Amino acid sequence: MNLDEISLDVYCNSVEQKIYVELNNTVPCVRLLNATHQIGCQSSISGDTGVIHVLESEADLEWPLSKGPNPPYMVLLESSLFTRSIMMKMKNESNRVAGVAVVVPNTSPPEFSPHTTCPNENTGVYSDNYGPNLAHCNTTVWNPRGNGLSYEEFDFPVFSLKEDNETEFIKQCYLDHNRAVNGSAPQYPLCAMQLFSHMHAVTNTPTCMRRNDINFSINPGTQTATVVSRDTLLLEPCFLGTLLLPVFQVLSTRFLDSRAFFWEVSTGAEGSVSGFVTLLAAAQALREVTHAAPPTRNILFAFFQGETFDYIGSSRMVYDMENGKFVIDLDNIHSVLEIGQVAVHSGTNLFLHSDPVSRRNNTVNDENLVNNLQSSTAGLGFLLVEPNVSQPLPPSSLQRFLRAQPIPGIVLADHESAFNNRYYESFYDNAANLNLTYPSDLSPEEQLEFVTDTAKSLTDVATVVARALYKQAGGDESLVNTIKADPKIVTQMLYGFLVSSNNSWFQAVMAPELKNILKPSPPEYYVGVAMSSTPTRLVQYLLANLTGAATNLTQSQCMYSYLWVQGIVPPNSTERDSFCVRASVRLTKAVSPAFELGEYASKDYSTWTESRWKFIKARIFLVASRDLEMLTLGVGVAVLFTSLLVTYFISTKADVLFSSTREPASAAY
Description:
Helix content: 25-40%
Protein name: Nicastrin
Pfam families: Ncstrn_small, Nicastrin
Strand order of the largest sheet: 1-21-10-5-6-7-9-2
Number of strands: 21
Family: Belongs to the nicastrin family.
Shape: elongated
Number of helices: 20
Low-confidence stretches: 1-10, 216-246
Domain Nicastrin small lobe: 28-201
Keywords: Glycoprotein, Membrane, Notch signaling pathway, Signal, Transmembrane, Transmembrane helix
Structural class: alpha/beta
Strand content: 5-15%
């Protein structure tokens, strides 16, 4: 590249920067597909552009939807206006709405859940053939706050913006250029926004998978085929556990994953973290007693991924058990205890949910598990009670086991009927939802060690779970009251999973090659194709360290059932004291059986897929009036044709215009 080319590049970049202001703190809503349809949002292939309108109330919708003279509009709204009513009105007038930008504040509204009122209603155990009166939340609406926005399709892009300087700049641009005065139309130039989030996949999963196959067969080596082929599967390692042998008591959290309306802002504090942190703490509490006095039954700790999307992880485990592809089969399961949402108490009780159909048919007997749980709360300040009315199981992995065969099981939760969680599957289900707060004068390392009230509460729940499991597995009754969860471990896990994963404890228990997954923020719990498996890896290594044993093996010898971890940095040293941990922790894939079987229109298994995209981008700029644009175009065209005519005239008369006159021969003097 020569100097002229370098100068040209710099010049072009500077012109673009003068025209556009790039927005960096944005997160899109993306497209998802299943067996029957598509949901989510997308822009056109070249991005969608509209004049910015800041929505101040629902009544203010009249301007972008009908009165405004400069459609289409890019609507900027506060999270309090991000409601189903407003979004559906804009969806129905999408020819006047180019897109939506939602400002996510630093504080939470009174309630918000973009999920449906009946999560996973078509893939649980209840159907026309099993408890038809309980199917589709006929008796209990689990998530009454759900507005269903996450399962709608929008033909325009929807982005979230953080409440920061960029958002203030956009609002100021709107005030300076776009705000109508006394109902009169604003004058050009106007402030506009352009959003890019074009999605490649369309229609449904069967269509997407068929197009993948066509692309592979026609041109298997092209980049386009590679991109299209990844439009699909929600892949994630799903199962972690401590394996002993032959007859098992199974304990499982409902899920490790979560989701929100926007692509990568799901923290799932109450929805998922409260459950699996409690389970990890219970596993640690059982470590010493199960070594000192092993119970007659073995305990399997299971952590499932992809449960938000129609129980991907649990349905795959059941499928593998039924087909002899798992370490045990369904007949080896004695009973199931699942930890649901347990951190948001509305009183002093937690609730024991069971399946009324199998209990009524006498196909299972879970009374022993109920009694073991209820008798384990002595001295802990709360009770475990059964709901007062006959109702179905809440959305839970246990339902996928019951679809296969009757198994005694209980789901432990903090709600009797409807969820206490006011932010189920939304970006507000974060640390604040669990009242996870720290004194302002504490350093990050001190916050890691500070035992919060939430940690104390979950420690008590973990203690009850550990004691009940030990009794249910046939352990020594005289040792039950010695089982206690550690509040310090619980508070460290809550800090690492909901505040900052890049802390000294998480660093010590992770493998050196995985240290880069630790960030100064919570992990991302969404399980899309492009997302990392950070929560899975964190839980894997935490479970290994909490239940395993350190060995003297070197790093080269640390293989198979062994994990090499970084360890702590000793005082007066700069090198970590790394070591090898022996633990019975395993990973299996959470790939829906529908994709293993090629049944992309399956009604029995999850068929959710995620579209791929080329890039995500947002920017604002000033746009001139249509008349000025047309005038500029017209002048440009006129100049073009004029220059062509002049060039033609000059080229045709070149021999006259540019002929050189010969000088006469030199005269002799």
